[in-house]
Sequence to fold (260 residues):
Amino acid sequence: MRALVTGATSGIGRSIAEKLYSRGWDLILTGRNEAALNEMKERFGANAEVIKADLADRSEVMRVYEFCKGYRIDMLVNNAGYGLFGRFEETDLEDELNMLSVDIVALHILTKLFLRDFKKHDHGIILNVASCAGFMTGPLLSSYYAAKNYVVRLSFAIAEELRRDRSKVSITVLCPGPVDTNFNNRAGVSFSVKPITADYAAEYALRKAFRRELIAIPGLAVKLGVFGTRFVPHKLLSAIVYGIQRSKTTGGTAPAAAKE
Ligand SMILES: NC(=O)c1ccc[n+]([C@@H]2O[C@H](COP(=O)([O-])OP(=O)(O)OC[C@H]3O[C@@H](n4cnc5c(N)ncnc54)[C@H](OP(=O)(O)O)[C@@H]3O)[C@@H](O)[C@H]2O)c1
Fold:
């Protein structure tokens, strides 16, 4: 069995790669950090291929897909992603479009192309990494939340199409709350609640994906929080999320455009 893992150089993606490796999977790992990719290649040996690619660039996404064509892929893990903190009018437009290219466009392209391949063989697992942000609006992190809403809704829709086809192909969407990775370190913000580890999120996601379950929300508090969003008026929910995001920034004000 072989998986393509995007964003495999750190955090949740790295943990997913390690856990798949320890289950005997072969891997194709991608990210921009060449040193991290080489280190993983050394550790996993013949079980891993690495391909450096910037997924903000559509032609690089296609290059990753073409690279994978030389192998039989059983699982696609769309994990690469990051966020931009700041008020919507202040975040840099170019940075934000790059973020949307990684968080939405690259995931969209790979999901479509691998889904077509998987359906031909009626076999394959897609694991899309979204966030509990995918169930809410996110002032001060607005386009990131909106992007994760896209990932959640796209995955739900594909799942229903697969169900109607009685397909053996499955899709799982991972929707964690805070996870201890580089995500917030890069932004210079801190979590307002205790994060789970990347290992826990990865193990939970893989368990759900192997059971062909659609939604994977690790942690009871986050599960309850997501469930609760159904009953809270959207203006109140936006006000609550604003408060949470604001409290994460040093000094109580969000940086203009800090990357994850
Ligand atoms: N941490 C959290 O609290 C949290 C919560 C919910 C959901 N998530 C989601 O979990 C996923 C993984 O994030 P993480 O928390 O593990 O953060 P992380 O440690 O910063 O990892 C992000 C990964 O994405 C890759 N990436 C970023 N930009 C890229 C680009 N332009 N091209 C290719 N790869 C790129 C990075 O690789 P390179 O740097 O090598 O390019 C890295 O491997 C993301 O989709 C994130 O939205 C995180």
Notes: Residues 7-13, 31-33, 54-56, 79-82, 102, 129, 131, 176, 178-179, 181-183, 198, 260 surround NAP (CB under 6 Å).
